[in-house]
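FORM 12-B: Structure-to-Sequence Request
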């Protein structure tokens, strides 16, 4: 069996509790509802449950319920028969069929329409369904794990989630704490992500002591996903240097937003080069004008062509660092 530490890095009490819950619920057939902020690792928890369950040899399929319109999500989940709608040139098995014997992960389930929630509830109660345009009821054997970035109870109060569906999904609820409440887990995760990058690129880069302090002090509104992206960005920016310093961490657009002062400016750490400071100023100005390059160029006092050339250079640098 795969070591769960490969899935969920950290030693904080909140993450230890989540590990314990995974171990307890994985061998069962209980439906699980995972709640937590965006980027906190909800799908990671769902995969961990699947991997430790008797269904681990079966498929694990996931769908983001908020990314598809109601008409399409029904076809994706339950499949459709040939000719059931324009473009349906052949019959198609939906996810509940293809995931039979395994696990179906419904991400952002509170974004599903009320009508689809009704159909999902019936499926959960019977494990039977109709394809779109079909007249034959089909049975399947699938475990459902759902997730939401909202408070489930508040979602019911807001009318975004049926109360009866909440009770059916949350047979075993798991709440994921945001990264800012996980203490030094942020450092363990950062080392883990840097280790993955070193292994991928054959390098041996390290964090400088002050860069670890920078990582620990930031509040990470985007949680683990934001941290992972910030480490990759810092890895690219530091190029051939062996140690990642605060200036490299601050090069992440997300972290750089925390450097803005109360008057809308940016603070540049001592030790930054003129080229780095210029890049941060250009990117911060673009962010201020919501990506409008004309306005950004006027604010910066340069021509639009110069701005485009600078952005193209930054893109080339990033591509070369990945090569």
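FORM 12-B RESPONSE
SEQUENCE OUT:
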């Amino acid at each position: 069996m795969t070591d769960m530490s490969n899935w969920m890095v950290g030693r904080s009490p909140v993450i230890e509790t989540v590990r314990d819950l995974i171990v307890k619920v994985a061998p069962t057939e209980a439906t699980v509802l995972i709640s937590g902020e965006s980027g906190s690792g909800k799908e990671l928890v769902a995969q961990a449950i699947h991997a430790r369950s008797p269904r681990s040899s079966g498929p694990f399929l996931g769908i983001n319920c908020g990314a598809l319109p109601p008409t399409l999500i029904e076809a994706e989940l339950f499949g459709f028969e040939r000719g059931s709608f324009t473009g349906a040139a052949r019959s198609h098995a939906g996810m509940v069929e293809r995931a039979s014997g395994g696990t179906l992960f419904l991400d952002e389930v509170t974004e599903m329409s009320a009508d689809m929630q009704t159909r999902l509830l019936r499926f959960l109660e019977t494990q039977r369904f109709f394809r779109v345009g079909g007249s034959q009821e089909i049975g399947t054997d699938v475990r459902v794990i759902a997730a939401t970035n909202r408070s489930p109870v508040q979602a019911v109060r807001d009318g975004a989630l049926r109360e009866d569906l909440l009770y059916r999904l949350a047979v075993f609820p798991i709440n994921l704490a945001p990264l800012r409440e996980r203490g030094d887990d942020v450092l363990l995760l950062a080392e883990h992500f840097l280790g993955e990058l070193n292994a991928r690129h054959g390098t041996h880069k390290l964090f400088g002591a002050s860069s670890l302090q920078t990582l620990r002090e930031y509040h990470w509104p985007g949680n683990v996903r934001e941290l992972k992206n910030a480490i990759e960005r810092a890895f690219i920016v530091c190029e051939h240097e062996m140690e990642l310093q605060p200036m490299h961490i601050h090069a992440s657009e997300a972290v750089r937003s925390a450097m803005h002062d109360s008057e809308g400016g940016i603070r540049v750490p001592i030790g930054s080069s003129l080229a780095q400071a210029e890049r941060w100023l250009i990117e911060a100005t673009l962010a201020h004008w919501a990506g409008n390059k004309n306005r950004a160029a006027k604010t910066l006092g340069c021509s639009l062509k110069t701005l485009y050339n600078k952005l193209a250079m930054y893109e080339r640098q990033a591509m070369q660092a990945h090569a």
